[in-house]
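Field reference: sequence -> structure
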Amino acid sequence: MADPSGAPPPAAPPPTDWGTEPAEAYVEENLDRFTAEALVDALVTAGHDADAATDAARRAVARRGAAPVRAQARQVFLVAYGLTYATLMIVLLASPSRGGYGQLAAVILTVTLGLAAAISAGWLRRGRGPTSLLGLLSLPLVLLAAVGGICAMSLPGIVGTT
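Structure field:
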């Protein structure tokens, strides 16, 4: 189905050796104005395999439908990482440290939790992969548990009486 003006979908990109990414991007770009079926027809007309074009359209439609879940996952991710960072920093900087290692531990926490957050943000930002909230949060929560857990287990050796 064409847009209300009756125009056909724009020309689809030709098939490439790069897989279905260009076809998926084409469908995602034009899904607001055209039906998935019309876009699949345009891809097939451009020389794409019909099954590959259908799969590309299905994935693009699924990604578009998962946008609200991705937004919710980003919010949960930001709150979880922010609370963990704030809690551990308060403990590290507000308590007396043995041998002055509290400040060094705070720097190490900042770097490692920042790296885990960057990896997690990339995981949440990418268009592929899981579309459920739990699936999207799997990697960010595992990284948070690993970094936060290691830091929390190290606290008794760092924080205490001087």
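Note: Helices lie at 21-30, 36-45, 50-65, 67-94, 101-125, 133-158.
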